[in-house]
Amino acid sequence: MTDSGRALSQRARLAILVLYVAGLVAASKLALGTWLPPTSEKGVWFYSALAALLLGNLLVTPFFTKPVDAIAYCVAALIALFAVNVWGQPHQTGFDRFLWSVALFYVVMVLVAGVLTIALKDSLTEKWRKAGRSCYLITDTLGSPVAIFSAVFLFALVTYHRSSSREYIVIGLAWAVFVGLRPVEFLTGLARRLQAVWTAKAGTARLGEVVGHESPGIVLVRENPSASASLGDLLLVRRESGKLGVAVALDHVGFADGRWLRGMHLSYLNLSDNAAFDDHLTREVSEGGVFLAKPGTIGADIDKDAANVRNYLLGLVAPDTTVGKLQVEIVRTDLSLRQGTLLDVEIDSRRVLYQVIEGVTMEEILHQKNKRGFVRAVGKKIGCWNHTKNSFDRVPWLPQPNAPVFLALQQVATVAKDAIGHFPGSSYPVSIEPHQLVTHDAAILGVLGVGKSFLALELVERMIAAGIKVICLDLTNQYEQELAPFYDTNSERACYEELMGIGPPGKTNVQRNIEEGGSANEFADKVREHLGAFLATENKGKLKILNPARFEVWRQDSRPFNEQASMATLTPTEITRIITEAALEVLQGQGMTDKARCCIVYEEAHSLVPEWNAVASEGDKSATNGTAKAILQGRKFGLGCLVVTQRTANVTKSILNQCNTVFALRVFDATGMEFLKNYIGEDFAGVLSTLEDRHAVVFGRASSCSDPVLVRLNDRDKFLGAFRPNKPISEASGGDH
Q: What is the pTM of this model?
């Protein structure tokens, strides 16, 4: 069938059939003098032509002929030939018998080939399978209805009409016109082509041909030497279904026999209805041709998708992607990509965000041992942003293979009042729930100079704003300066002087009972007294800062001899235990609660709660165990802690293992990374050594994200401008101690 005929609808083919039958009837009237030819030998030409038209391209098999259809046509032709068997008619010449035999042989040959094609199709022997394929080629080439019934027609024309020149010429011309030339289809196709030329919005240019598919969604194109496509160009290609489709150009892959281009199919249907696509173009595409389409040719929606590819497409979903981890094959190098960058991919019609945590170079062997190197990015799933909750929802599935992966739209981040930071390059916030932070304990881990203390100061202010009292055990003397608006310097100085005055006299306080010697007991009593006043519900004070290293407190180490005994000063670790146990004792007196009441901040925690192999004295082991026990018991009474350290290996794991929320900044030591793997997983643990300043991996009960995330922390000055209340010092700190 002609290309134009392939584009006709079934209704149009039926109308053309009616016109052609009318033409054959007119030819019968002109040649035989009767509108309807007789059913004798004189009418064989008419009925064979009608069968060719009826059973041919117009209705029954308009596109291709299957072996079973060829068998049916052959049976009908055999019936017609045997009905006019010339061997049983003595008046027929030898030439007539020869023509009949040739037609019969042709029909029988096609019939046998069709039967063998079906019989040998599933043969187990290679020889018979090849024979079956050969028979299929014969059937496909010679078994069309036009070919079968033309053999019958030519026999009938020569045998029964050669004696009348009028019949011979008229019937022969009728067959040539209505069955051979088919003028209506030709004129219809010409009209459609002319319409396409004058109504098309823009032209198309042949780019190359399809050489393969990477299912689903990817087409491989071999470009012509004189043509080339760039990222985001629109391509008219054959879809996997064989219909006309549109793809968008991605990257090039080099081969020895020509450049190959990868294109990504777009899901748009009914492209053939566009006036820009004429029958010739449709045929070329259906046969594997690929054409470049100029912008505006296809439609605004497709042009928009192409623009998104040019601006934001990063790559394709690669093999080994799991529910929680995304593998991305990078198809371009002109986009800025770094650890923490957000990626956007569709899962079940929802836009889901992933965060880049790793990159690796890959290599694959291609056609004819050619190799291709590329980069693969690894992302961890964040979720689908919920604008109502201002947080991410879980999405419990994975994207389709070869699905497009886009860079999330870059946004200028602003410091949100409730957020400790945001995802790098975006405005998506990450917030912390202060009460969960305290009751389930928290830790800030990282090397010097990466922003640990600024983060700790911010968290302290958030606790204060949530009505939680904070006791900072600060060896750096930084908190008093940075948290001045919440700290009553005069009142706290008086407390300090009172506590510092208790300790030194204990050096000469020798008692028969060793436990009563020194000044440790008196110091502990005074600490309980001060903390009792501070933690009282009626006290408006929110912040107390103590430096355990500044207190000189003595402990009697031996039994007295001549009213003398060996004395030793308490270490910062031992004083930390006294303060922690005193806070617990006070809060126990207030009863149990689900809300946080007080947080103890252990700044430089490796010196305050050291691991057993990093203690300065044997007494520090017992002191650290006592502190850890108090923190473990404190949750039900609203007591929690915040551990801040740059030496994870030297902090007691008895406390670190209780920390349910972790802020991991840049870390180098193997012990710290191994410990953090238990919290944030191996993937994020591998990121820690390359984190930039003011970046952290955040995970835990207090985080607004259910999984570990890489966060750009707030800058101190921007946080202060957005969060710190503009209140007088006396009101913010409370002056009643």
A: 0.66
